[in-house]
Amino acid sequence: MRNKKFATGAKCQLSVAMQRRKTVGQFLVRAGFTAALAAAISLPAAAATSTWQIDPNHSAAQFAVRHLAISTVRGAFTKVSGTVQMDDKDISKSSVEVTIDAASVDTRVADRDKDLRSDHFFDTAKYPTLTFKSTRVEQVAPGMLKVTGDLTIHGTTKQVVLDVEGPTAPVKDPWGNQRAAASASTKINRQDFGVKWNATMDNGGVVVGDEVSITIDVELVQKGAAKSGD
Question: Based on the domain organization, do 187 and 213 belong to the same domain?
Answer without folding.
Answer: yes
